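Figure S4 source data
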Amino acid sequence: MQITIAEIMSKKIETIEEFASVQEVAIKMKDKNISSLIVVDSFGKSKGVVTERDLVRKICVKDVYTSKVIIKEIMSLPLVTINPNEPLSTAIDMMLQHNIRHLLVVDDKTEINKPIGLVTPRDLSRYTEFTRDDTTKDNLEKILEYYI
């Protein structure tokens, strides 16, 4: 039996509007104890993702004034999405192909592809013992070695 994305995804996702300041993002991440936020437009459509890594690489090291920069300027693009019914191996392949650590799970039955979950290397690591396919195991190990 193949494990699907719906079985491994984190269902608790947090969003922030694209015109929020970097400072607002950092505060929300701290308050919610999370490392990423899905960036949405005023209609709730997913536009990108912003991570702690984005904050460090695009703001902190450049000594940028955090209340003057909006997330739309630094969010990671393109936003890579996956359907909840896809197998685990597809998520692993997509993460490697796009060199990403956050894969947004969307309900593609709605017009705006509503975000319903998120897959990260941590989610994948919980299911390593269920992976029987050698290629999938190898790819999963690559993600875990590089990203965790």
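Figure S5 source data
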Amino acid sequence: MRYTLLLYTDPADIADMTPEDWEREKEIYGAYIAALQEAGVFIDTDWLHPADTATTVTLKHGGTRIQDGPFAETKETLGGFFTIDVADLDAALDWAAKCPAARTGKVEVRASAMGSA
């Protein structure tokens, strides 16, 4: 079953990171990706630009509306994702708990409506 792990963080928590801090984060995430690949469950991942760079499109109320971000008054924003293919929700939750983002933010786990790969 496919699951997407949505990674949320408070931008204030990473605002003062040094280049060395970023390199360490890349190493930590690289090890996590390697573990997912070694287990044969890795499908995809990506880091997203900050929410204030996003644009939304809606066709509600009969017309096209385009809005630049940010959109919600929340501390935590979506910063990236992993898509994995595992046996069940328990396995997805185990991988979510191992995700580096869980240390400082939140990892939301959602099953894919399309099922397995």
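The helical segments are 11-14, 19-39, 89-98, 101-104. The domain at 2-111 is CATH 3.30.70.1060 (Alpha-Beta Plaits).
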